[in-house]
């Protein structure tokens, strides 16, 4: 009566695969010509789905997704979303007094090994008064630095 119990991996154990966004072609009447051009250029799409807005394409790989540049060059109407690997990270640093200039915060971030794309003090909508918040935009390769868990010095 020895039964071996196997556990399926929990959701935290599974490696997350990045989903490649779909591409929606707006003009259904041009589908046959566009599909022939897609095949001629060697792009692979998992499937094409007829929807109310047009025809939705599901690219197989990121390089197939990047092949949509020819849609722009040929002025083919379409829409899509940004690849997850190309998205940056927006970080809000709280508790920075408004008397401390952004350049000083930028210097501290560079000392910690970050090279932000941009840095800006957040302001109130009503009167434009500075808030104790700083918005920092990081590119994707710099996000791995956050996992180092570098202690951030507290500003007195």
Automatic annotation (TrEMBL):
Domain of life from the UniProt record: Eukaryota
Protein name (database record): Uncharacterized protein
């Amino acid at each position: 009566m020895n039964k071996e119990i196997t556990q399926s991996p929990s959701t935290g154990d599974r490696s997350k695969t990045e989903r490649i966004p779909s591409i929606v072609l707006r003009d259904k009447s041009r589908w046959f010509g566009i599909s022939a051009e897609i095949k001629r250029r060697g792009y692979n799409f998992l499937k094409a789905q007829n929807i109310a807005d047009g025809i939705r394409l599901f690219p197989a790989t990121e390089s197939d997704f990047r092949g949509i540049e020819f849609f722009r060059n040929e002025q083919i109407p379409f829409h899509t979303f940004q690849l997850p690997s190309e998205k940056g990270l927006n970080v809000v640093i709280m508790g920075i007094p408004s008397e401390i200039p952004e350049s000083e915060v930028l210097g501290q971030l560079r000392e910690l090994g970050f090279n932000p794309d941009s840095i800006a003090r957040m302001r109130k909508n009503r009167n434009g008064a500075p808030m104790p918040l700083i918005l920092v935009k990081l590119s994707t390769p710099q996000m791995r630095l956050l996992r180092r868990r570098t202690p951030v010095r507290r500003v007195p």
